[in-house]
Every structure is written in structure tokens, then in C-alpha cells.
Amino acid sequence: MALGPLAPIDRATLGYLAVALAFNLARGPHAFPAMPLLPLALGLAALVAAVLAPRARRGSPLARVLAEFYPLLLTVGLYTHVGLVNAARGVSHDALVQRWEEALFGGQPSLEWIRAFPDPAWSTLMHAAYLSYYAILAGAPLGLWLAGRRSAARSTLLLMMSTFYACYLAFLVFPVAG
Per residue in 7-35, is it b (16+ CB within 10 Å) or e — as a string? Predict the structure, then answer.
């Protein structure tokens, strides 16, 4: 039971966690330690969304920030959960997706790109650009928050996390390892 009103981000997170748990129970690992630990982890995440975050919104400034940004902290664990559930199922549509890429691009862009530009400096720049994605994810809503635009930060977080949840759901329904 929540100790305060659930924010939209809490409801979105709880909705995704319920779906993730259903997939976990239907298709997830059935061996120890993953079998009990994955549902437990999802339950703990639900506890954060349903109880701790609403309560923290009434706390200190740091607690309020954590109450709003906790879903971003969950993304790594939730992404890992998707991979573990899909690995247990033993199904991956990578070959099909690679055929789509072949038909669309006439080859494998990621393989051909690195062969066309084998320069370590270029590779470092491209990896840095890829890794900047993580800074942008946290930086956009955090910048809004620090600028005092709390409502915009909450909206940004909700939209970002809803997109993550939709993508995770797509990966659960149509597994690809990448």
C-alpha cells in the first residue's frame, strides 16, 4: 500500500513491473538462483515504486530527487532482466533482423562501417558518442530539475521511461540479443 499518492511515473513503473513479472514467470529461468531472485528483484522495484518513492516525495530535497529519478536507476537492472528472461527461453530473432538489415541496407552497416574506418581515433570518437547517450538520458531531466522546471523534468522522465518500458516489452515479445 502506498504511503502517498502514486505519481504517473510510479504507475507506469508498476505497470511495466507487472508485465515483466508475468513474462518472468511464464518464460524466465527455472533454475536456482535466478528463479527466486528475479521475481524478488522485481518485487523490490515494485516496493520502491509503490511505497518508497511516494513517501520520499515528502522528504528531504535529496529524497525528492531520488523519488523522481529512481526509474532511471532501474533501467540497467530491467534491461538485464529482459536478457535473462530471453536467454532462458532460448529464442532470438537476430538472424531474421540481420536479414532485414541486409535487405534494407545491402549489407551489415555496423560491420562495414568499422571496416571502412579502422582508425583507433575514429573508433574512440564513435564509442564516446555512443556512451554520451547515458549522460543525455540523465542530463536532460536533471538539467530541467536543477533549473527549477520540476514539471518539465517529471514529464521528460515519464516519456523517457515509458519509451524504455515499451522497448523492453518489445524485446520480451520479440527477443533479439543484438
Answer: bebbebbbebbeebbebbeebbbeeeebe
Scanning the structure block, which residue is given the C-alpha cell 505497470?
A: 15
In this prediction, residue 85 carries a pLDDT of: 94
Mean pLDDT of 39-63: 96
- Model confidence pLDDT, tens digit, residues 75-88: 999 999 999 999 99
Cβ-proximal residues to 174 (8 Å cutoff; 6+ apart), any chain: 93
Q: What is the pLDDT of residue 3?
A: 47
Task: Report helix angle 8-27 to 150-173, nearest 10.
Answer: 10
Concatenating the DSSP letter of every residue in 87-112 gives HHHT---HHHHHHHHHHHHSS-HHHH
DSSP letters, 10-42, are HHHHHHHHHHHHHHHHHHS--STTHHHHHHHHH
Overall pTM > 0.85: yes
